[in-house]
Automatic annotation (TrEMBL):
It comes from the Bacteria. Pfam families: adh_short_C2. The keyword Iron does not apply. Residues 21-32 have a biased composition (Basic and acidic residues). Residues 1-39 are annotated as: Disordered. This is NAD(P)-dependent oxidoreductase. Signal peptide: none annotated. GO terms for molecular function: oxidoreductase activity, acting on CH-OH group of donors. Belongs to the short-chain dehydrogenases/reductases (SDR) family. It comes from Sinorhizobium glycinis. InterPro entries: NAD(P)-bd_dom_sf, Sc_DH/Rdtase_CS, SDR_fam. Keywords: Oxidoreductase.
Amino acid sequence: MENFPRPPFKRQTQPMPGTTDRMDPLPDHGENSYKGSGRLQGKKAIITGGDSGIGRAVAIAYAREGADVLISYLNEHEDAKSTKALVEEAGRKAVLVAGDIQASAHCEKIVETAVNELGGIDILVNNAAHQASFPDIADITDEEWELTFRVNIHAMFYLTRAAVPHMKPGSSIINTASINADAPNPILLAYATTKGAIQNFTAGLAQMLADKGIRANAVAPGPIWTPLIPSTLPEDSVMNFGKQVPMKRPGQPVELASTYVMLADPLSSYVSGATIAVTGGKPIL
C-alpha cells in the first residue's frame, strides 16, 4: 500500500477524455501485479470504458481469472489496443468495439457483437463515464447536462436492457457508481447527480432481476488515478488529488480490480443490490 504514489503530483492537463501514456505518474492497472486463480474461467464479459483506468484494470483481472472480454470505448484507439494486448497475453479473447454509447443502437451493437464473437454474456460491467467540472451552475449548459446523463445513466439502461435477454442465471451486472453519489463534489454537479441515479438504478435492478437469477451490484470508487482526472479537473485539484481521504493518496485502478472480480464470481451468489465502497478509508453513507 505504501508503494503507491502520493500527492503532490506535477502540474498536468490533457484534452478530454485523456490518455494513459500522458499521465505522470502512470496509473497501475495490475499489469505486473495481478495474479489470477481461475475464478471466472470460461466467462464472457462486456466492459464499457475498458480501454483505460478502472476498465483496463478490470479487463486485465478478468482475463487473468479466465474470462474473455469485449472492450467498449469511445475513440481512444491506442489505449484500447494496449488493453487488448494485455488480455491476449493472458491467453483470453479480446474484442474491441469503438463508438459512442449515448446511442441506444450502438449499445445494442455492443451486446450483439459480444453474443456473436464471445458466444454469450455472463458479466456486464457498466463503467464508462463522462465528467466535467464547473464552478457555477450557470456554467453548465443544457448540452453538457444532457450529455452527462446520456453517457452515464441512459447508456447503462440501454446496455442492460439489451444484455439481460442473453444472460443466464448466475450472471452478474456491475455498475460503476462513485463516492460522489453520497458525498457530491459541487464542481462535479452533473456527474455526481448521475452517480446517485446509478446507485438507485442498481438497487432497483437487483430486485427486478432476482427471479431471473441475475445479480446487480455497484462499485463506488473514491479518488482513482485515471485519465479522467487530468482531463477534467483543475490543475490544482490534480496536483493534490486523493489528499482528502484518510489514506492521503488516490487509489490506483488495480486496487479496484478485486472488487469487480468478487462481484462477478459465482461464489458471490447472495450478493445483489449492494454498493461496495473503494474509497481509501472515507465512509459512504
